[in-house]
Amino acid sequence: YLEPWHADVFEFLDLRKNHGKEEMRARDLFLGLWIPDLFMKRVEENGNWSLFCPNEAPGLPECHGKEFEALYEKYELEGRARKVVKAQELWFAIMEAQIETGNPYMLYKDAANGKSNQQNLGTIKSSNLCTEIIEFTSPDEVAVCNLASLALPRFVENGAFNFDKLYDVTYQATRNLNLIIDHNYYPVEEAMNSNTRHRPIGLGVQGLADTFILMRLPFESELAKVLNKNIFETIYFAAMTASKDLAKLEGAYKSFPGSPLSKGKFQFDLWNVTPSNRHDWNTLRKDVMEFGVRNSLLVAPMPTASTSQILGNNECFEPYTSNIYTRRVLSGEFIIVNKHLLKDLVNLGLWNNDMKNKIIAANGSVQNIKEIPADIKELYKTVWEIKQRNLIDMAADRGAYICQSQSLNLFVDSATSSKLTSMHFYAWKKGLKTGMYYLRSQAATQAVQFTVEKQGSTTMEPVISAPEVNVASSVQINDIEVAEITGPTCSMEDGCVTCSA
Question: Which domains does the chain have, with CATH numbers?
Answer without folding.
Answer: 1-134+409-447 (no CATH), 139-320+385-404 (3.20.70.20), 322-381 (no CATH), 454-501 (no CATH)
